[in-house]
């Protein structure tokens, strides 16, 4: 997934991850495929929220992303938490210098599996979006995106690659500290929306949580497809 990371977008993502437990729940789908001695490479890792959930179940994680801000944020979190087996670096994940037991591709895009098959010893785990739009901003401004599941299925079929596929969904809405923060969040996704439109959308959609830390919450269910390619059966 192509995303521009900055302090604001990183903060929103971390808040959403912790509030909803999205990455913790997603990790539970991946952990059964891991072994304690596995070396895992997370390509296009972003802020690495999933890596922190998986780290206790593998030997080591190399996390790679093209965003310098994302890697700086991830390295700061590694230092803060004292995580010993996560190494994060800024770079091109399509220029791997070695192979790994597990290759993790989380919301990586619609194509590109073939390259990572060449660098995987045990399993490629690819997580794709299965929905067509986001409910986190007004419908008029939603950019229709293709359901990536059939695209990846077609790609793997052309490569004659066997796979397991699990469809699942998790809550991954956005908690917000103030109404002004909520307006900023909607604008970040729909910059052409006007004030009246945003306020109407928020009044219809936002939940009042009665929590002191996050009084507002925009609900959203994230639909995913999880592909698991076992290299031993290729």
Core attributes:
3-stranded antiparallel sheet; Rossmann fold; 8 helices; 10 strands; alpha/beta; 234 residues; 35% helix; 7-stranded mixed sheet; single chain
Query: Which segments are poorly predicted (pLDDT under 50) over 5 or more consecutive residues?
Result: none
Distance between the termini: 27 Å
For the biggest β-sheet, the strand order reads 3-2-1-4-5-10-6
> What average pLDDT do the residues reach?
92
* DSSP helix fraction: 25-40%
**CATH level 1 name of the largest domain:** Alpha Beta
**Percentage of residues in strands:** 25-35%
CATH superfamily of the largest domain: Vaccinia Virus protein VP39
Briefly note the CATH topology name of the largest domain.
Answer: Rossmann fold
Total number of beta strands: 10
Number of helices: 8
Please write the string of helix (H) and strand (E) elements. Answer: HHEHEHEEHEHEEHHEEE
Based on secondary structure, the structural category is: alpha/beta
CATH architecture of the largest domain: 3-Layer(aba) Sandwich
Count of discrete structural domains = 2
Report on the biggest sheet. Answer: 7 strands, mixed
Radius of gyration: 18 Å
What overall geometry do the principal axes of the alpha carbons give? globular
